[in-house]
Amino acid sequence: MKIDARLFDSLVADYQQRVDTALDHWLPPADVNPVRLHQAMRYAVLAPGKRVRPILVYATAAALGIDPQRVDGAACAVEIIHAYSLIHDDLPAMDDDDLRRGRPTCHREFDEATAILAGDSLQALAFYIISHDSAMTPDAAARLQMIEKLSLFSGSRGMAGGQAIDLAAVGKSLNIAELETMHIHKTGALIRTCIQLAALSTDALDDTQLQALDSYAKSIGLSFQVQDDILDVTGDTETLGKMQGADSARNKPTYPSIIGLQASQEKALDLHQNALQALSIFGEEADILRYISAWFVERRN
Amino acid sequence: MKIDARLFDSLVADYQQRVDTALDHWLPPADVNPVRLHQAMRYAVLAPGKRVRPILVYATAAALGIDPQRVDGAACAVEIIHAYSLIHDDLPAMDDDDLRRGRPTCHREFDEATAILAGDSLQALAFYIISHDSAMTPDAAARLQMIEKLSLFSGSRGMAGGQAIDLAAVGKSLNIAELETMHIHKTGALIRTCIQLAALSTDALDDTQLQALDSYAKSIGLSFQVQDDILDVTGDTETLGKMQGADSARNKPTYPSIIGLQASQEKALDLHQNALQALSIFGEEADILRYISAWFVERRN
Fold first, then answer.
1. Which value does ipTM take for this structure?
2. Is this model's pTM higher than 0.90 or not?
């Protein structure tokens, strides 16, 4: 399909609405006990957000000709894992952030104990959805593989491990390889999972195609983070929905702080080129994935 | 099989050793990055403990004639979920405990951020094990059901929800029904899961047998907690491995504080009788489960 800005914006709006409806369905109702815990879970997940990870799931499904209904569960699972990680990362013992997605962080709106338990419960919910959602692929072995990927890439050897590396790096001087290792875990792993979960929803892909998609996912996973670091320098708080300069203020290593702003921007563009290269075996059906790679390095929030 | 104290102790020792070996296998090595996070995960899980939940898994498997190798993964998963919940429950924002299993709690030995991430990573690991362990039942649909049970019963409508109810109850006066609701979630749900995961490892059970096992599990899940409350009053810190009187000191509602010590002891014995009644459709192959029910209400730590 031929993608331009208008079509892309319309697709993104569709995907956002689609996943929000599905999230609302899977989240426990706010009037069911324990009420405060369920309110906190809904507050954190349903907060206005870009829904980047669900968009990636749906876009990959579109590129592969998979019915979106078959990946609603995967889209919800990755967004819920992302939301739980934000709740815990924002806690006083971690990044100690007050603002997230333009609103008070979960522990500021509720309390620390509720925020910890909301994160814990959301993680469990993500796995529940994949194990339970009968609209996903009926292939139980494929869904087990989805759970395997999601648990591996969100745990100590993926996202949570990346956050541990991140915390250990505060105030330290990292080289570019160390910074990259951190981001490959902290952000990249879950972004790779988005594409893998969508790909596991079909059995029509050969190994070459799977590897090409994973190579694409690795490139955009890193370019997303490079751009995040750039926006921490060049963005403004209102557009970002979080404190501009928060990382530099906390003396966290970032791409601009290590290689400078211009080299960071070049790095983001290089990664975009790598992503396009990885997709070269696909035809125009993958244009939406190409467009997303461009969006990642051109976004302003 | 005819169970007496000597045979039971020997079986328990076997199960404990068996699950510790399996846990050591599944936990990331302490010298793999991020090292501190992996050390914290191992510290919390491999701490000396009764391994009550794995014992329940193995005992149920023994009663049902299931090869223990098929439930190693389930035994590890429930123990790891239990360990993650202890790490998070002990945090300053929750129960603020310094001592657990006779050693400093995870956040005291490491730090709060590491403890939060260790708990998060352990939860992911539990689901990873069930999704990945090829020695478990090869029936992928059965393993999806295990993940469904474990995620449901450990999340906001199970264990984590019970902890939220528990925190909300501090300093409040609960009636006995409210206290029971709390414990059914906080402790009972995961204990039920132990028996269900073992039962899902075979397809030889009919609905009557499954319901009988679940009824047994509900009774012992509650009797375990009643006895815990009793020990908080009658035990001593050294035997318990945690602070005696911690619950009463924190003004937490307990069975003895609501119905008195003697009525609590009678309640535990009633639940034991219910558990035996539920098992009446099974023969002597279930004697180990009967023995466990007695152990739960007679234990001193």
1. 0.95
2. yes
